[in-house]
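From the shared-data thread, chain only:
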Amino acid sequence: MKINFYIFTILFSLLIFSSCSLKYDQKKDVEEVNPEFIFENTTFKRYENGNLSAVVTASTMERYKKSQAVYADNVNFSTYNSQNQIDNDGSCGLMMADTKTNDFQFFDGVRLFSNSFGASFSADSLKWNGNNQQLTSGRNDYVLIEKDNTTLYGSGFSASGVSQSFLFKNSAEGSVLTENMQDAQNTANNGGENF
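Structure, as tokens:
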């Protein structure tokens, strides 16, 4: 029994000391693991050439020093044109901004109204590339667009701020309410008999 106890003790000790997974020689990048700043219930304003260009409010906003990434939740945002008028207005549950590449990702109940498009966009997630002014969804993610009397719903969405155009790579469906249909609907909604 004594030999088994010694063998067990030696094997157990080897097992314990050889299975230690801590790697003391590898340094953690503390600047990337821990945020440089954390703001609660905050409003962030961005100015370009002395003019207000964006306002972002969030429940929580974190900024990381090395990557210059910003993460925020419960976000409302507005962007302004050179005449200091609101160009885009929106909200989302989560936002990630890469200030190095000028990329923004919006998640969780994204709503966006674009004055330049004259349309509203709703989606689970959208990505904005500020360098080429491209708004896109994932290949299979659905986007709802509402403009005037037109409603479109489809996947594989992309829109260009430069050409003021948009497309759906995959199938899309929607409805267009014409002027005659609008008059008929208004009459019906008012209790009229011409419907």
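The helical segments are 2-18, 30-33, 179-189.
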